[in-house]
Amino acid sequence: MQGNTAMLRTTEIFSISKDVSVRCTNCNLRELCLPESLSPDEVLRLNGLVSARRRLKKGEALQRAGEPFKSLYAVRSGSFKTCIATEDGRDQVTGFKMSGEIIGLDGIGTNTHIIDVVALEDSEVCAIPFTRFEEASREMAGLQKQFHRIMSREIVGEQGVMVLLGSMRAEERVATFLLNLSRRFRARGYSPTEFNLRMTREEIGSYLGLKLETVSRVMSRFHELELIQIKQKHVLILDPQRLKDIASSATSSV
Amino acid sequence: MQGNTAMLRTTEIFSISKDVSVRCTNCNLRELCLPESLSPDEVLRLNGLVSARRRLKKGEALQRAGEPFKSLYAVRSGSFKTCIATEDGRDQVTGFKMSGEIIGLDGIGTNTHIIDVVALEDSEVCAIPFTRFEEASREMAGLQKQFHRIMSREIVGEQGVMVLLGSMRAEERVATFLLNLSRRFRARGYSPTEFNLRMTREEIGSYLGLKLETVSRVMSRFHELELIQIKQKHVLILDPQRLKDIASSATSSV
DNA sequence: CGAGGGTCTTGACGCAGGTCAATGGAGGGG
DNA sequence: CCCCTCCATTGACCTGCGTCAAGACCCTCG
Fold first, then answer.
1. What distance separates the 2 farthest-apart alpha carbons in chain B?
2. Per the CB < 8 Å rule, is B162 touching A159?
3. Is residue B22 classed as helix, strand or coil in its secondary structure?
């Protein structure tokens, strides 16, 4: 990190986090996360809000439905699935969260978490106590604006999933899913054409409203058609364009 | 309809009323809308933000995808459907908005509306310019909190729809839909057991990820089973409990 | 290095809901 | 008041995906 920071930060009376090696200021996710489009001043202040970082091992829950809502979390590394469990024992994956993305927005409305969030691999998050965050965003127009943007995008993103679940056929769903992952990997500086899935076929299926066998079959078909190569969790996208065509192919015979 | 409309007609688009006879302060929707849980002071100030009320006739669009985002709208009377149109010509209903509910949150993220909002009947909304709203919510903690709650609930509500679309069978979807309407009518002081649908079978189907014929068939079956009475748009709920059982019946044989 | 459990693939078959088509109502406009 | 258009209902048939089942692969742990 940046060499001599020793004399800085004395003002942070509340810097609970022992490990200060990662700060919003020099975090390489700042363009994807809350700091996006904040002024340097604001980023500094935001950094002060991060109460602690927390490590989770694969399979561990970051939050559980029913728990009181205290903090938002920004994914620092790794990835998560968000699940909703209905009374009748159904359990559905409603999303996957990657680095830079914000978790916990579900708790704001009722002060209680509604969804479960589980690490798909060993992961790390930054915790942001919400009460203090709200205070700060009253004083920083930029932070307020950015937070509103993030919530709005969450709403829009979910509407996209609703369209997927409501009107796409299995192949379109899977193609859309792969392209979505691809785009997000690219945004994080990883290869958009070669990556490892962090989730199982069952989790993908749950998210896409399909059974795991269908997900597997569709992927095999894409493989045969030489749109992708897939071996277990390893994905290589060979023909993004045809994949896009499939993803947005009106069923039209017209 | 409204008596002599000859001179009004000319500027249909500008049927914005300066009429301020309805104020948040005495609006009977205040418990369902933004003023919920605000102090009288805050409500007064919020009222000052409402730039105008706007009347829409059945079928008229409140906003269209692609238009610049300027204002949030609170539904004052009537109801709306929110639709998303995909490039490939698909068009899906993503929600229905009733009085007291907030429209326009989709535009915040990109300053451009993503969804179409169309009146299902003659309706009226209060327009709230967003820039001024953001300013005000920086100065009023209560308003800020309430706004965050509303966005969070929107997110949670959409997750519920995702579960519906992702894992429910047709009968469960329709039962869930009817109970949802019932609850919202009750919250507004109307009968929870007898009401008129404002949307067509096709719109319901689009929202529920079903075809209109399926919606019709399921409703007819519910009628035969004496769970409801339904004649065209008129609904009478006879057995809410059994409807609930259907809505949350795990497919489980286990 | 081998055993075992979780994950993935693939096949055969069935059914919920889609598709197509015909008919009947309801309501608004002239 | 009547017509016309939109909406809803119902039946018959079809198909995409779910279900069930059998193996194969992979990774971990002893």
1. 67
2. no
3. coil
Give the other-Cβ count within 10 Å of B124's Cβ.
19
Nearest to A49 by CA among A138, A125, A150, A135: A135
Q: Mean pLDDT over residues B161-169, rounded?
A: 97
Q: A127-165 pLDDT, tens per residue?
A: 999 999 999 999 999 999 999 999 999 999 999 999 999
Query: Which nucleotides of chain C are near protein (any atom < 7 Å from a CB)?
Result: 7-12, 16-21, 26-27
Instruction: Determine how many CB atoms are found less than 10 A away from the CB of residue B137.
Output: 24
What is the average pLDDT across B67-92? 93
Q: Is the pLDDT score of B232 beyond 60?
A: yes
| B166 contact to strand D (CB, 7 A limit) | no
Q: Report the 10 Å Cβ neighbour count for A8.
A: 12
A231 touches chain B (CB under 8 A): no
Residue with token string 């507004």: B188
Q: Where are the domains of chain A?
A: 6-145, 168-253
Q: Are B236 and B229 in contact (CB under 8 A)?
A: yes
**Which B residues, 55 through 114, put their C-beta within 8 Å of a C-beta on chain A?**
84, 86-90, 92, 94, 105-110, 114
- Mark yes or no for CB contact B158/A156 under 8 Å: no
Probe site for chain A from B152, B173, B179 (most A CB atoms < 10 A): B152
DSSP notation for A51-113: -EEEEE-TT-EEE-TTSBP-EEEEEEES-EEEEEE-TTS-EEEEEEE-TT-EE-GGGTTTTB-
Residues of chain B with C-beta less than 8 angstroms from the C-beta of A159: 84, 94, 106, 114-115, 158
DSSP B114: -
State whether residue B250 sits within 8 Å of chain A by CB: yes
Q: In whole angstroms, how large is the CA radius of gyration of chain B?
A: 19
Report the mean per-residue pLDDT for chain A. Answer: 90
Residue closest to C17 C1′ by Cα: B214
CATH number belonging to domain A6-145: 2.60.120.10
Q: Which residue has the tokens 């049927």?
A: B15
Does A40 contact B at CB distance below 8 Å?
no
Fold of B168-253: Arc Repressor Mutant, subunit A (1.10.10)
**Helices A141-167, A40-49: inter-axial angle, 10-degree rounding:** 70
Is the CB of B170 less than 7 A from some atom of nucleic acid strand C?
A: yes
Question: Per-residue pLDDT tens for B105-136?
Answer: 999 999 999 999 999 999 999 999 999 999 99
The answer to whether the predicted template modeling score (pTM) of the entire model surpasses 0.85 is yes
Chain B: closest CA distance from residue A92 (Å): 6
**Measured between alpha carbons, how far apart are the two ends of chain B, in Å?**
57
Q: Identify the CA nearest to B196 among candidates B232, B172, B242, B241.
A: B232
